[in-house]
Amino acid sequence: MSSRLVDLRPEVTQDELVQSLSPPPRFDAARFDNYIPNPDEPSQARAVESCRTFAEQIGGGQSSGGWLRGLFGRRSGPAGKPGLYLDGGFGVGKTHLLASAWHVAEGPKSYGTFVELTNLVGALGFTETVRRLSGHRLLAIDEFELDDPGDTMLVTQLIAKLTDAGVRIAATSNTLPDKLGEGRFAAVDFLREIHAMSSRFDVVRVDGPDYRHRGLPDAPDPMDDAELTALAESSTGTLDDFDELCGFLAGLHPSKYGRLVDGLSAVHLRGVRAARDQDVALRLVALADRLYDRAIPVRVSGAALSELFTDEMLQGGYRKKYLRAISRLTALSRDLVES
Asked: Across the chain, which distance is largest between two alpha carbons, in Å?
């Protein structure tokens, strides 16, 4: 009998949230030397060198006491802006480069997605988050984006506090820093905050096609329900009805999604269909990211994974998030076939 995600009740303490801020298992071995630049995209090789230089400059000085440094003076560090911002489409290896920089840089250091960072602030509070992170030499932020006014005010202030304390920040995004928030909320009302934050970053462009699908076949077709159920019951993976899982995720804080799927061998979703609204869709994006981080294969019945988001969603302000999720889930669906 297969287990179900909806029957699990993951718990994560505040200390565990902080301690978990490191590259996900998929990128444990990520290094600059095993990033393979696309020879047709010279920006990729340039990005490797920019990231390597940035990471190698980090270090020296005190490894603690950042909170006091923020109050009484910024610690000395390498010349140049305190942040490095990797801008490019999904599937060009930005996360690999970010994880590589984290592995090279001297600690203490933290690594998390943008969502994990905002979840951390929600769990600890702004002041405590600043206190804990301001003693670090590096904060790496993957999938940086500003989705609403609250995020904008919170994150711009957090980055200002941390960089003033001497913390170096490396980030990846699909959107240039001064264009963050466009199409999602009245970003024009927050231009001062957004521009002040973007001025703290050197921007490095990473161009190219999605490597996850370069020269590879399309995702496998959805299975029928009986075949999917039989496959799930013959494995140690989970089997959930799609609509029930969507309802379950609504009551689970996204900071727990990673713990929810830790250690799973595969995830099977029965009756997949297009997300019924944007709230559901964004929760599915967060789940897809945590599954991809942990390289957990996915298999479905019902609609194809490419149909998870409606045409209206794919034309809206969260388009890049949805396309990234489809790209990652498609790669995970191939993993189950190839394993």
From this structure: 65
pLDDT, tens digit, 9 for 90 and up, residues 61-89: 333 444 444 443 344 445 578 999 999 88
**Segment among 70-74, 149-153, 331-335 with least mean pLDDT:** 70-74
Give the residue among 328, 42, 320 at the shortest CA–CA distance from 175.
320
Instruction: Name the residue type at position 167.
Output: V
Tell me if 293 sits within 8 A of 335, measured CB to CB: no
Geometric angle at alpha carbon 280, from 274 and 285, rounded to 5°:
85
3-state secondary structure of 87: strand
Q: Which of 209, 228, 244 is the last residue of a domain?
A: 209
73: left (phi over 0), alpha (psi -120 to 50) or beta: left
Q: What is the CATH number of the domain that holds 149?
A: 3.40.50.300
- Boundaries of domain holding 43: 31-209
Three-state SS letters, 130-182: HHHHCCCCEEEEECCCCCCHHHHHHHHHHHHHHHHCCCEEEEEECCCHHHCCC
3-state secondary structure of 104: helix
Are residue 237 and residue 200 in the same domain, yes or no?
no
Nearest CA to 269 out of 297, 241, 310 is that of 241
* Inter-residue contact 128 to 246 (CB < 8 Å): no
The Cβ-side half-sphere exposure at 248, using a 13 Å CA radius, reads 17
State whether 84 and 157 are in the same domain: yes
Q: What is the reported pTM?
A: 0.77
Please say whether the beta carbons of 269 and 2 come within 8 A: no
Predicted local confidence at residue 123, as pLDDT: 82
Q: What is the pLDDT of residue 108?
A: 93
| Neighbour order of strands in the sheet with 138-142 | 109-113, 138-142, 168-173, 83-87, 201-205
Q: Say whether the peptide bond before residue 42 is cis (omega within 30 degrees of 0).
A: no
Same-domain pairing of 197 and 285: no
Q: Which residues contact 7 (CB under 8 A, 6 or more apart)?
A: none
Q: Is 219 helix (H, G, I), strand (E, B) or coil?
A: coil
Q: Helix 126-133 and helix 149-164: axis angle, to 10°?
A: 30
